[in-house]
Amino acid sequence: MLKPFYLDGNLEAGCDEAGRGCLAGPVFAATVILPVDFHHPLLNDSKQLREKDRELLRVVLEREALDFAVARVDAPEIDRINILRASFKAMHLALGQLTKTPRLILVDGNRFIPYREIPYQTVVQGDGIYASIAAASILAKTYRDAWMLELDAAFPHYRWKENKGYPTAAHREAIMAHGLSPCHRRSFQCLPEPPSPTQ
Residue 106 in 3-state DSSP? Predict the structure, then answer.
């Protein structure tokens, strides 16, 4: 069972991102403040859930969270500032949209850039430990997947409807055939490195 809070009390904002390892599309981040008594039997790390369960939980979380927000940073800025900073920026943008000020920010991972003067705690694999981080992981994932479906309509040959921008073999083959789109992250290794010449 996921832990409800890092500290006793409420107004803890869980933060997580989605799309950090993709070759194309934005990185999304979400933050969620859950009620003290919130519980849902399906709530877990988004990577452990079926798509239909994530979509169901998205509706539940948007309805029952005390506050939540989702933000994104697009590929050109990822290339400009790097993916780690872009992930933190997306989290900061989401936190800036909250109408309630959290007393503590819980962040999935082991690094974070402080936001204003709000205390924070990083938690490795926190999306499988704390409910608010799991909730954030679900919102970030479902919002990003929906965004990639929209991009797929404009660039169907990359098969983003299936791979969501991740580096699958089919995605790399499409890049080889069609080149990079405006949505690709040019700072990423979108194609395999050529083999070293034999001596």
Answer: strand
